[in-house]
């Protein structure tokens, strides 16, 4: 049903007041999903207009969008979207800074340890000496990513593992906020075979010191880039320091569409939100800023790749990953990161007079406010 914005606002105001444990009836869920669809369709229509304004727009087999030199498109993203997936390697459960967009916001001190002298790969715990056996027993992945939370807090522990995967021909990338980098540890990572280093430059609001480390990393590591949730703060500060950042010689910028969970959504209270494919909940401005960012990169011919790592890309990533795992047709691990629809989060966009649904119609009997909906 093409529910009107007025009716959508009335119903979501009612749903937001219900106790969390109260389950909606099937008809009420029909209304809820109709509202979510109306918002998403309007957002996608606007995003499509922005995409059409980007000169030289390219795709990786229709799974994601980017602009720039094909040779600089990050190998880790190719593994994720086109290869055998992207295996997460976990070691460090601590971080030295606290970002409001972090999925672990407010729980940084409560993250469970992986275990002394242990690594978590594919949900299984390994000692360092187990990894060569793992590589001989199972089909090696095209790529792995070191995640959770700030590896540079104990980066020296990573060197031998990086060397093992490098010797096995597995593409490796590692994420960092960049604040703990030194020339010594960057050089060591390069010497042990790290293929790709990704700086979350938004974590420090484009700190000059971290920008300098990006340039230093390029001396020792083949591919260096930025991967940051796209926020207004990052967009504005990047543009102020654009020339200095591009002068580092970095290869790519992955503009991640910011998606929210129960930990960080309160930091964005009052923003216009939408939900993508019944999954990730995001501020509408996040991808719109990315598309503006890409247009400027293309028009000014920045010497890098700028990649639209949006919710749609992540949706297709999970479809691809399930295929690689032998899943059934249509299987995916992509899902909403809330136990229930966070109805209150969508009230600002429903109350925004400038946001319009593409098409509206009267609700049928039994679904109108005042009707008994069972």
Can you describe this structure?
With 374 residues, this protein is an alpha/beta fold. The protein folds into two domains: 1-71 and 264-310 and 326-374, no CATH class; 75-250, Aldolase class I (TIM Barrel), CATH 3.20.20.70. Helix content is 36%, strand content 15%. It is built from twelve helices and 13 strands. The strands form two sheets. An eleven-stranded mixed β-sheet has the order 1-2-13-10-9-8-7-6-3-4-5, with helices on both faces. The chain has a two-stranded antiparallel ribbon with strand order 11-12. Strand 1 and strand 2 form a beta hairpin. Helix 1 (5-17) packs across helix 2, helix 2 runs parallel beside helix 10 and helix 5 (159-167) runs parallel beside helix 6 (183-192). The longest helix has 27 residues, at 26-52. The two termini are 17 Å apart. 39% of the residues are buried.
């Amino acid at each position: 049903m093409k529910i009107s914005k007025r009716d959508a606002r009335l119903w979501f105001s009612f749903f937001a007041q219900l106790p969390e444990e109260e389950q909606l009836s099937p008809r009420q869920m029909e209304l809820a999903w109709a509202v979510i669809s109306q918002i998403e369709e309007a957002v996608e229509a606007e995003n499509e207009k922005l995409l059409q304004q980007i000169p030289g727009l390219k795709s990786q087999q229709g799974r994601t969008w980017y602009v720039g030199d094909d040779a600089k498109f990050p190998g880790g993203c190719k593994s994720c979207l086109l290869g055998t997936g992207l295996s997460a390697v976990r070691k460090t459960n601590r971080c030295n800074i606290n970002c409001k967009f972090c999925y672990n916001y407010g729980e940084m001190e409560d993250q469970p340890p992986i275990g002394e002298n242990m690594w978590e790969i594919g949900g299984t715990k390994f000692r360092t000496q187990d990894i060569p056996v793992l590589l001989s027993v199972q089909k090696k992945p095209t790529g792995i990513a070191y995640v959770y939370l700030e590896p540079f807090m104990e980066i020296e522990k990573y060197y031998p593992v990086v060397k093992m995967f490098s010797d096995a021909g597995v593409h490796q990338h590692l994420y960092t906020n960049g604040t703990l980098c030194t020339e010594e540890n960057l050089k060591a990572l390069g010497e042990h075979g790290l293929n790709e280093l990704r700086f979350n430059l938004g974590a420090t609001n484009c700190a000059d010191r971290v920008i300098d480390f990006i340039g230093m990393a390029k001396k020792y590591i083949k591919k260096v880039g930025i991967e940051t949730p796209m926020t207004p703060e990052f967009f504005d500060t990047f543009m102020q320091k654009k020339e200095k950042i591009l002068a580092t010689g970095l290869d790519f910028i992955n503009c991640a569409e910011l998606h929210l969970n129960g930990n960080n959504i309160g930091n964005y209270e009052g923003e216009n939100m939408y939900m993508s494919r019944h999954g990730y909940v995001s501020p509408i401005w996040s991808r719109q800023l990315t598309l503006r960012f890409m247009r400027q990169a293309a028009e000014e011919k920045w010497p890098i790749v700028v990649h639209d790592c949006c919710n749609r890309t992540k949706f297709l990533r999970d479809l691809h990953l399930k295929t690689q795992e032998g899943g059934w047709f249509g299987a995916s691990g992509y899902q909403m990161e809330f136990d229930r629809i966070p109805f209150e989060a969508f009230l600002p966009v429903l109350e925004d007079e400038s946001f319009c649904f593409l098409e509206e119609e009267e609700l049928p009997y039994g679904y109108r406010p005042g009707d008994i909906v069972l």
